[in-house]
Sequence to fold (274 residues):
Amino acid sequence: MFTMVMLFFITVTFAQSKKLDKIIKKDYEVIECTITKMSDTTVEYSLPNETMITSLEVSKIAKIDFASGRTQTFDVSETASQTQTVNSVSSPAALKANTIAVLPVPYVNSENLSNSEEMAKFAQSDIYNKLLDKSSNIFPLTVQDLRDTNSLLRKAGLDYKNIDEASIDELQKILGVDNIIAAKVSYNIGQNQTANTYSAGTVQAKSNTKVTDQNFSTTNTSTDLIYNFHVYFDLYKNGSKIYTQSREPVLKSKDSWMDSVSYLLKRSPIYVKK
Fold:
């Protein structure tokens, strides 16, 4: 009898001290278990003191800490993006017919790929204000308020940095509009040096037969910044691209991209001259 009790105690102690695998899900839930099988799409495991096998999709897993000490991580960003998409599509905004929204405008330095948040907002506001100013020319379209647009995008986890990752169908459901303007400004900055030389001279008589000249000159160098812009302008209606153009402004000034936006807008199919 004593021997049986000791064996039972040893067995229980061993079971309790056995190391378990840890599954850390992307929603931060931790599951301590024994993993029995893994595939590209699922992980099968059993809980302590249970024989039932449970299956879990790999797409829901962030990391697994195995009892052996090995750790395996899984792609978090992809699933997060998929979750955002599902949430966006599952609760779309009410569709407002004949309504156009202006997306945030990526404003990217083509040399170092930096994206300016300040200029992205400014460019979006510039297009928005141009549409309001030309409301009679784009009738019967109405322009969705910029705050509404950005609020809906923010709730869906979208902004000027990742707006290109969402499809137009998803964006139309998120924003509840049937028309969308998607623009982008790409630029680089160069330099132009200009040198100006100014000369002056005097004539001085040394004698009745000999004349000498004294010349003076000075050179000023100035450096001007040259802004090389490339503006991309896409227009979508009911999920289909109906207009796509790009343009480099003639002038090389800091704000010359705005001229290209006006040029492309006035030649788009939504604009009617009056």
About this structure: DSSP finds six helices and twelve strands in the chain. Residues 93-189+224-266 form a domain with the Rossmann fold fold (CATH 3.40.50.10610). Residues 1-16, 76-90 have pLDDT under 50 and may be disordered.
